[in-house]
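Entry for the shared binder. Reason: the reviewer on the internal report wants the predicted structure included alongside the sequence.
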Amino acid sequence: AAVEAAHELGLPTAAHCLTTSSYVNAMEAGVDSVEHCACFRRNPCLGLLERCYEPDVMEAFRGDHRYFMIGISNNYHQLDQVREGVRKPDEREAFLLEQEKRECEIFGRLADLGMRPLVGTDAGCGYTFFDETWLEMELLCSRCALTPEKVIHAATLEGAGALGWGDFLGRLAPGYEADFIAAEQNPLRDIKALRHIKHVVCRGKIIE
C-alpha cells in the first residue's frame, strides 16, 4: 500500500532490509531501492548477526534492475586496529572480519543478479562519519571489484536516479544543476583522489 501510494504521487520508495525475508518482501512489494540487503540471521553460538546469502531465494530476482545500497563502510573503523595488525582480533572481532568479507561477497552477488549499486554510508552510526563517503567509494573499488568509473557513476547519476532526481542532478550537462566537487587529482585513475577535495560547487557557486 505504501509503495502504491508513493508511486501515485510520483515518489520513489526505499526499504531498509536486514534479513533475506525482508528483502524478498520489499522486492515483491515493488520498492525502488533496497538498503543494506544484509541477509542477516542470528549465529546460535555467538549470538551475533551473521550474513548468509541464500542463492535459491535470491535467484528469483535475477534480471531485476532496481537499486541497492550495502554500506560497506558502516562501522568500518571499529576494526581498524585489528585490520591493520596493531593487535590480534578476539573471537568477536574475528567473527566481524569474516562478516565484512561476506558483505562484500553479497554485494557482488546482487550486482551479478543485475541490481544497480548505489553509494551510501549510514553516517551517524557508531564509527561511521559524515565526511567519509570517499571511504565507501574506496572500499567498493578495493573490496568489491568495481572500477573507479563505476563507483563514481553509482555515487552520482545512479544516486540521483534513486531519489527521483535524475532529470536535473547527477551529471554535468545542459539543463542540470551545477552541483559538483573538484578534486586535486583524477579519481578515474585513483579513487583515493576523492580524499582531497579542492572545491565544492553548488548551483554553479563555489561554497568551499
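Summary line for the report: The longest helix spans residues 91-113.
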